[in-house]
Amino acid sequence: MIEDQEKGLGYSEAYDLLSKFKIKPTKQRMLITKEVFSKTPKHFTVQDIFVSLIRRNKKISLASVYNTLRKFVELGVLQEIYIEPNKSFFDTIVTPHYHIYDKSLGQLIDVPEGSVKISNLPDVPNGKKINGINLVINIENHSK
Fold first, then answer.
1. Which of 9, 17, 30, 114 has the least C-beta neighbours within 10 A?
2. Is the pLDDT confidence value at 32 over 60?
3. By C-alpha distance, which of 45, 72, 47, 70 is closest to 60?
4. Which CATH number characterizes residue 55's domain?
């Protein structure tokens, strides 16, 4: 969930970011951009951003949030991590790294760099190369 104490971008920073990527800085996109990008890396869902803005009496649609976040993914400034067929998180860290998903808490956690070693990868077809590995370790509370 988005923390209230986190400071997002200011108006001019959000405007500059949208302009840099040739995205029209509408009021809704400005709200989303200011909410998403902060000095602290974070994971969030479309619903997290939507609820956070609605709680602050901002007029915005869920579709606007989703479409803006998808555009940021296309531009490479956000990463989308798929957890289940209908559940994904967005990550402000776009460099390759792995995650743990705690189903009990609904939280996505970064795995420390270097703590996962992947070996014995399968051969890929001729003319192809591996361009990335997505790894999410799913955990939940252990029942006794």
1. 114
2. yes
3. 47
4. 1.10.10.10
Q: Is residue 20 part of a domain?
A: yes
Interval 31-42 mean pLDDT: 88
Q: Is a pLDDT exceeding 50 seen at residue 22? A: yes
93 sits in the region (left: phi over 0; alpha: psi -120 to 50; else beta) called: beta
Q: Specify if 100 maps to a domain.
A: no
Residue 130 within any structural domain of the chain: no
Record the pTM: 0.81
The Cβ-side half-sphere exposure at 110, using a 13 Å CA radius, reads 16
* Inter-residue contact 89 to 108 (CB < 8 Å): yes
